[in-house]
């Protein structure tokens, strides 16, 4: 998740406005972490998803 944050922070600085990762990217990362049995990291990813995209129903699954 840290690399994802760093990447979008760099993009935000480069283009001069806040850019957030698309929901699909965050969701796929969370699913991949669940598949690899890294549940603690997956939880962090989905918590971040809830903060950034509270309207997305998949974030609550």
UniProtKB/TrEMBL annotation:
Taxonomic classification: Bacteria, Pseudomonadati, Pseudomonadota, Gammaproteobacteria, Alteromonadales
Native organism: Thalassotalea euphylliae
Name the record gives this protein: Tetratricopeptide repeat protein
Top-level taxonomic group: Bacteria
């Amino acid at each position: 998740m840290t690399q994802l944050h760093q990447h979008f922070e760099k993009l935000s600085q480069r283009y001069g406005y806040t850019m957030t990762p698309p929901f699909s990217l965050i969701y796929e990362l969370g699913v991949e972490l669940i598949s690899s049995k890294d549940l603690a990291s997956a939880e962090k990813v989905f918590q971040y998803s809830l903060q950034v995209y509270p309207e997305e129903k998949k974030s609550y699954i």
